[in-house]
Amino acid sequence: MSARRQEINLQFNQFIDALLLGAVFWLAHFVRYNGIVILDTLWSIDDFSKFAWILAVVMPFGPFMLEVQGFYSYPLEKTPWKSLRQMATGGFWLLLLLSCAVIFLRLQIPSRSVLILFGVFAPLVLLLRERIFVWFYVRSLHRGGVGERIIMAGERTSMQEIMDAFTASQKLEIQVVAVVDLASGGVESLVDALHLHSVGRVILAFKHLDLDRVQRAIEACEIEGVEAWLNADFIHTSTARPSYESMARRPMLVFRTTPELSWVLLMKAVGDRIGAAIGLVLSSPIFLIVAAVTRLTSPGPVFFRQHRAGLYGRSFEMWKFRTMCVDAEEKREELEHRNVMSGPVFKVDDDPRITKFGKWLRKTSIDEIPQLYNVLKGEMSLVGPRPLPVYEVEKFERSAHRRRLSMKPGLTCIWQIRGRNKVTDFGDWVRMDLEYIDNWSLLLDLYILLQTIPVVLFWKGAK
To answer: For the domain with range 148-236, which CATH number is right: 3.40.190.10, 3.30.420.40, 1.25.40.10, 3.40.50.280?
Structure first.
C-alpha cells in the first residue's frame, strides 16, 4: 500500500474510532445512569452533561494514543491479542491524561463506574471494528478491488530480493504486473511497460547505483506522472534507519540512528518538564534540610556545578548537591592510580574527597535531585544516558562511543537499573546506553523509571 493511501486509511480509521469511542462512552453512561450496572456506592449519578469534558479528552486523544502504540499499523499481520495489548497501553496513557486533568485543572469525574464500563466496552468495540475492517479489506483484495498494481524495474537480482521479502499482507495488497530489467532493456522498455499496464507506482531496485540510468528512469516516471520509489540497498548501514526529507528544494535521503522527531518525542519532552516541576515542588523541604546540614558539616557551597556533555556533546552546567570537599577537582590527579573504571571515566572506591554527609547523599541518590532543574530547563531528561563531564567525553578513544550523546542525557537509564556503580567496564556502560537509544519508547522510559524506584530506595549499586 502506498504511503498516501496508508495516510488516508489512518485518518479514516482514526475518525471512525473517535466516533466509536464517543458512542461507547455515551453507552457506558446510559448503562450506569439507568442502573443497569452499578459498580460503586452511589445509586444515582449526574446527567451526561457533567461528563462532557471527559468526552472532549477521549475522542481526540484516544485515537492518537492508539496510533502512538502502533495500533493502526499492519492490521493484516496483527493478532487480536496484540491489538488488545496495544489498546491496553494506549488506555493507560489516556487514563494518565485524564488524571492530570483532574489534578491540575480541578475537574471532577462524577462516577468511576462510567469509566470502568467504558474501559470494558471500548476495547471490544474497537477490536470488532478492526476485525470487520480486516475482513472487508482482505475480501476486496481477493476480488481485485483495492490491490495496487506496480512495476518493478532495475537489476534483476535486486528486484527478486524485494519481491521475495514481501510480507503475506503485501502479497495480497500488491500485484507486480511487470518486471523490467533496465540493465539489458534500457529505459525505453520501462516506458513501454508503463503504457501497457497503466500503473501508479514503479519500484526502482539497484544493487550497484548507476546514476545516469536511475536519473533517466525517474525522468520517465515523472513524464508519465507515475510515482518512482528508489530502493537504497546500494547504501549499507549498521544501525541507521533511512527516511526521506527535502532541503533547499532538493531531495535528501536521511539516515538516523536516533528516534525521529515525532509527537511521541514531544510527549516525552512535555512529560519531562511536568515531572521535573512536580519533583521540585515535592522535594523543596529536602532542599532546605540538605542545605542546612551541608553548611553545618563542611565548608563550601551547598550546590556543585560542573560542565557536562549534553545532547550531541553540547556543554551545559549540571547541578548537584555538593558531596565532596571544595578542592576535590584539584585532588583528582593524586587519585588517578586508584581509578576502578576502564576508559575515560573516573571513579574511585572509598573516595577520600567525599564528606560524611555527602556519602549518605550519594547512597540515597538525593545528591541528584537538583538535576530536576536541568530537566525543567530542557538540558536533561528524566530518562536518558547519564551526562559525563566534558573533559571525559573529550577522551573518548572510540568515535562510536559518541553515539550515546545522540539523545538528551537523563537522571536515570538502563545503567542505573543493571548494576550502577558495580559496572566498571565503560564499554558495557556504552552498550547499555545504545540499547536504550536503539529501543527507545515511552513504555521503556516508564519501565526504567519504575525500576529505578527500588534501586534508589534499597541503595542497589550505590557507593
So the answer is: 3.40.50.280
